Amino acid sequence: MYADRALLRMGIQRFIPWRYAGGQNNVLVVGPSGSGKTVAALLLAARLASRVPHARAYVCDFKNADWAFLEGRNHYYSYLDCVRGLDEFHEAFTARQMGVDPSREPLFLIFDEWQAFCSTLPKPQLAEAQKKLAAVMMLGRSFGVGHINIAQDAYAQNYGNARSNFQVAILMGNISKEAAGMFGLDRKDLSPVYGPGAGHMLVNGVDLHQIQVPTIREMSPLQAAICQIVE
Ligand SMILES: Nc1ncnc2c1ncn2[C@@H]1O[C@H](COP(=O)(O)OP(=O)(O)OP(=O)(O)O)[C@@H](O)[C@H]1O
Ligand SMILES: [Mg+2]
């Protein structure tokens, strides 16, 4: 999915896989502004569309920018409408959990700018949103429910303390010592990166890879693929 940056430096192109079917249903993309999180997530979503049969996604685009090509679709939500997006996704998850909906086809929530969303909501609404997301993250796997979360920082409280349920963490750019510590990493474990699209991928909390997100020269094929999975 993303190129192994250590091998790339030696002229070898090898891609590190994302094994959705192998239980990697919760993916976090974290890093400073401009580090390339959204581009990395757009690639993930396109991957979902092309490689995971029958996948569907709900997209919450709090910034109301990079996913606006989905405007007009029922399951695209921007800015404050993301509250409704999370509610509707949570309802779809609950329907599976309650046995009302027996289907187990992959159903994903893609939430861009989760931290900014959290810092905007009033307290009672915030607690409710975090609780819903935590339930999806903790129990979703058995029901075919997954989640891609994009945030500038990954404070545990923003995930209702369910952060350890991210099987894959994509750490874009040069993250802070504090941010590295959130994943049990030492800042020294992370090689310095230059320019957008470079970072690290931590799988199951132990396998750390240096990654380079491929440069996307033409966005429209990627967007067309994503449109197929958002109703
Ligand atoms: N893989 C990449 N290859 C080349 N350029 C990239 C790549 N990823 C991102 N960029 C460039 O960097 C810019 C910022 O990327 P992106 O919007 O993904 O960052 P971000 O981390 O989501 O930022 P923000 O937190 O502000 O939303 C893009 O507009 C693009 O020009
Ligand atoms: Mg972004």
UniProtKB/TrEMBL annotation:
The record's listing under Gene3D superfamilies reads: P-loop containing nucleotide triphosphate hydrolases
Family matches, as SUPFAM superfamilies: P-loop containing nucleoside triphosphate hydrolases (SSF52540)
Q: What is this protein called?
A: AAA family ATPase
Q: Which organism is it from?
A: Anaerotruncus massiliensis
Q: What is the lineage of its organism?
A: Bacteria, Bacillati, Bacillota, Clostridia, Eubacteriales
